Structure to design on (309 residues):
């Protein structure tokens, strides 16, 4: 584009003819650079109002935002919930299970149990308070509750006959006994809804036999066969004398241990039997160290030493 009389003359040839270059006006005759071109801001409409495309806190990663009014607001909130990246409660519980036990048949079976219970009623939406989580931050409390359900699943599988490390896991996670019992109760209630359950006496007998076999396995690693047989015979004799069912067809009578959980009933009876046949106190403490039973701390610290005096 050629222009004339646009400003002062060219300092070199004194002409007033100039042309528009890339960055400056240029002299048309000699090509000397003259004034710098003004900045071009493009097209700017009058009274243009900038519009925010989406909120900074919006979890929708697309570039627009649904208008927040009426039905659109409901759709927006539903989309935000569906696209949330927060880890699900059931995933936290299974993750803690795998980190503690690894990927093994015990952790896989416990994970299936958690999924089964969660499908009936979402475990993350259960707002029953746990004593061990008092005073914790929200994320820390959520992790504690997830660990309680994970340990509860292991305990249920253990009561069904599976050999796992349920007592050790509850001890390592420092779970309160009342919280573990609450998690087990919730899981069992979710699993048994809509299905016929076995009779209380049959279930009690099965759980007692399972714990008896577990203790027999631990004792076999520490003592001679004759001593193990003597301890087991003493346990069976005391359980029957207390009205506990051990075999199919046995009647469950009201006795001193009828309201005691099966694990504690067998373990406490085992400690009393070991003291009865003359074993040292260290043997009982060693058994408790290797097989920690929830809720037995007071018994082992206060009652157990008296039995071996």
């Amino acid at each position: 584009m050629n222009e004339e009389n646009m400003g002062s003359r060219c300092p070199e040839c004194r002409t007033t003819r100039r042309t528009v270059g890339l960055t400056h006006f240029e002299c048309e005759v000699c090509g000397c650079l003259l004034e710098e071109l003004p900045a071009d801001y493009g097209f700017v409409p009058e009274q243009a109002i900038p519009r925010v495309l989406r909120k900074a806190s919006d979890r929708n990663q697309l570039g627009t935002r649904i208008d927040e009014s009426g039905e659109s607001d409901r759709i927006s909130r539903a989309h935000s919930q569906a696209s949330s990246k927060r880890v699900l409660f059931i995933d936290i519980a299974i993750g803690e299970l795998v980190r503690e036990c690894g990927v093994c048949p015990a952790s896989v079976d416990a994970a299936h149990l958690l999924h089964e219970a969660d499908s009936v009623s979402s475990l993350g939406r259960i707002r029953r308070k746990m004593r061990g989580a008092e005073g914790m931050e929200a994320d820390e409390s959520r992790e504690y509750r997830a660990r309680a359900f994970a340990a509860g699943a292991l305990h249920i599988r253990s009561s069904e006959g599976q050999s796992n490390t349920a007592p050790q896991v509850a001890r390592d996670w420092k779970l309160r006994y009342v919280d573990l019992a609450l998690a087990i109760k919730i899981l069992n209630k979710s699993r048994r809804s809509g299905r016929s359950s076995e009779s209380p006496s049959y279930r009690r007998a099965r759980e007692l036999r399972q714990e008896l076999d577990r203790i027999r396995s631990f004792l076999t690693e520490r003592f001679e066969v004759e001593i193990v047989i003597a301890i087991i015979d003493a346990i069976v004799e005391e359980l029957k004398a207390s009205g506990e069912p051990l075999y199919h067809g046995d009647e469950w009578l009201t006795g001193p241990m009828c309201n005691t959980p099966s694990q504690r009933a067998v373990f406490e009876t085992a400690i009393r039997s070991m003291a009865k046949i003359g074993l040292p106190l260290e043997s009982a403490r060693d058994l408790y160290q290797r097989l920690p039973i929830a809720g037995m701390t007071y018994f082992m610290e206060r009652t157990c030493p008296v039995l071996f005096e």
Notes: The CA atoms of residues 200 and 252 lie 9 Å apart.
